[in-house]
Design goal:
Layout (H helix, E strand, L loop, with lengths): L1 H9 L6 H38 L4 H12 L3 H14 L11 H5 L12 H9 L3 H37 L7 H17 L1
């Protein structure tokens, strides 16, 4: 604990969290891109070997062979092979840094649909503590309303029971109906 305080004191001014968040996100994104770019020579080499292997198999064998040996889909293997072909000058636009560029789209590697980014952005702004406090408030309001409802049922029951009780001029059938209605009302709360 003391070391943490000492470290904080060494910094003159800490940047606010809302400033740090986009900077950290940019660093993580740039790191991911750098890692993908650094791995390209390996993806291209794998693509060349996959092309060689594919030439020895028919279409049915090819899919089974990929799944059995590498747990790769044919689409993913196709991207590696396309990278190898482009790198060897066999296609337009052989300058690329990432598999996304080979594929010709801007999706993140991993096949995330386009709608995921807006959803993630919305969830980043979602404050779970505020939501939990709201739910607790709603629950408390409902609890108070239920307590009032139960009191109202009990008061009404007592007033009507005096009138409908067989000892006070009422009938057994009337009391049965009153008890049944009281039970239904309490269950409804």
């Amino acid at each position: 604990m003391q070391k943490t305080i000492e470290k904080r004191e060494k910094h003159e001014v800490a940047r606010p969290l809302k400033v740090l968040v986009p900077l950290i996100r940019a660093d993580l994104h740039d790191g991911d891109e750098a890692a993908r770019s650094a791995g390209m020579k390996y993806y291209i080499a794998a693509g060349r070997k996959l092309l060689e292997a594919k030439s020895q198999l028919d279409a049915i064998q090819w899919g089974d062979w990929l799944t059995k040996n590498f747990h790769l889909s044919q689409a993913t293997a196709g991207v590696y092979m396309k990278a190898a072909i482009k790198a060897d000058g066999g296609g337009k636009g052989s300058r690329f840094k990432t598999l996304n560029e080979v594929r010709g789209d801007r999706r993140k590697f991993g096949h995330a649909p386009d709608w995921t980014d807006p959803v993630r952005e919305t969830l980043r702004g979602f404050n779970t503590e505020t939501f939990a406090a709201h739910i607790a408030e709603v629950d408390r309001e409902q609890e108070l309303e239920a307590e009032l409802g139960l009191k109202l049922i009990d008061i009404g029951y007592r007033v009507l029971a005096v009138e409908m009780h067989p000892d006070r001029g009422g009938t057994d059938e009337g009391m049965r109906r009153l008890n049944k209605v009281r039970k239904q009302l309490k269950e409804a709360l």
